[in-house]
């Protein structure tokens, strides 16, 4: 947990746009659907742009404030690195708005990632790199090969098994995303490593 001064600083900064300061409270599992709804809004935003329907939010767990929002931009921008989770990390600020002051490392390490899809190894690694303690995913049927990274670094992974989100992604894979879904970014050595990993959650086999 951060020191009291850090938390006070966060509260004072956020109070510029959060009127009900007194209502802030630590995130509990009962709050997970609310934050997943915010991640799903980001997924819908990506789909409206013609991109993959994958969204994420970074939430400061002690206060329940969303500090960053993001969506996958592989198709829109031809980006290899702006997945939903990395975009949310990139956009995270103390005010939760673009251009706000950057989030100090100690506060970032108190955050959780809420993502509409189980994170890929790159995004799971980014969560580990910045010390996040929790990753909540809507589903892991369409992707699960980053979960061994979460397990390796002791990051709690929670799968909400959200059928609505799963249906949305599957419809996109069979429809607009049919020609672009297959992920060429996962290099062969990483595919082999994942396949050999004892924690490989679903016996994922490299293609
Ligand atoms: Zn990713």
TrEMBL record:
Q: Which GO terms describe its molecular function?
A: diaminohydroxyphosphoribosylaminopyrimidine deaminase activity
Per the record, a Pfam family? dCMP_cyt_deam_1
Return the SUPFAM superfamilies for the record: Cytidine deaminase-like
Q: Name one GO biological process term.
A: nucleobase-containing compound metabolic process
Recorded hits in InterPro entries, A to Z, give: CMP_dCMP_dom, Cytidine_deaminase-like
* TM ranges: none
- Domain CMP/dCMP-type deaminase span(s) in chain numbering: 30-156
> Per its record, how is this protein called by name?
CMP/dCMP-type deaminase domain-containing protein
Organism per entry: Cutaneotrichosporon cavernicola
């Amino acid at each position: 947990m951060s020191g009291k001064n850090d938390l006070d600083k966060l509260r004072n900064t956020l109070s510029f746009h959060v009127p009900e300061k007194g209502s802030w409270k630590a995130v509990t599992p009962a709050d997970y659907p609310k934050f997943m709804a915010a991640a799903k809004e980001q997924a819908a935003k990506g789909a409206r742009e013609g991109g993959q329907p994958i969204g994420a939010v970074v939430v400061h767990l002690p206060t329940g404030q969303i500090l960053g929002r993001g969506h996958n931009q592989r198709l829109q921008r031809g980006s290899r690195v702006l997945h939903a989770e990395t975009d949310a990390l990139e956009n995270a600020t103390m005010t939760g708005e673009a251009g706000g002051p950057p989030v100090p490392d100690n506060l970032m390490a108190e955050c959780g990632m809420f993502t509409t899809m189980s994170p890929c190894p790159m995004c799971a690694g980014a969560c580990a790199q910045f010390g996040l303690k929790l990753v909540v995913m809507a589903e892991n049927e369409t992707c699960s090969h980053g979960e061994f990274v979460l397990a390796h670094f002791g990051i709690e992974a929670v799968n909400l098994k959200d059928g609505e989100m799963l249906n949305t992604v599957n419809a996109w894979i069979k429809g607009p995303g049919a020609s672009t879904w297959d992920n060429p970014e996962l290099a062969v050595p990483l595919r082999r490593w994942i396949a050999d990993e004892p924690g490989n959650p679903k016996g994922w086999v490299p293609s």
